[in-house]
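Can you please make up a protein's amino acid sequence together with its fold in token form to help me picture the idea?
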Amino acid sequence: MAETPKLSVEKVLGKLRSNDQKSRDERRSEEMDALDEDIKRMRAQRQRLERHQRRGKDD
């Protein structure tokens, strides 16, 4: 039977932490993208409302 290579606890923890950090960064990036989309949507909605209000005052 072949021996399996053993990793030190430090190396394993380092790999797990780096993977966790990557997933945390990816999640944060996705949340930021979603918030950016919300901001764009709200700005467009505000502009439409402001245009509609200006038209009402001009009549």
The chain has a mean pLDDT of 88. Residues 28-59 form one domain. The chain is about 85% helix and 0% strand. The radius of gyration is 26 Å.
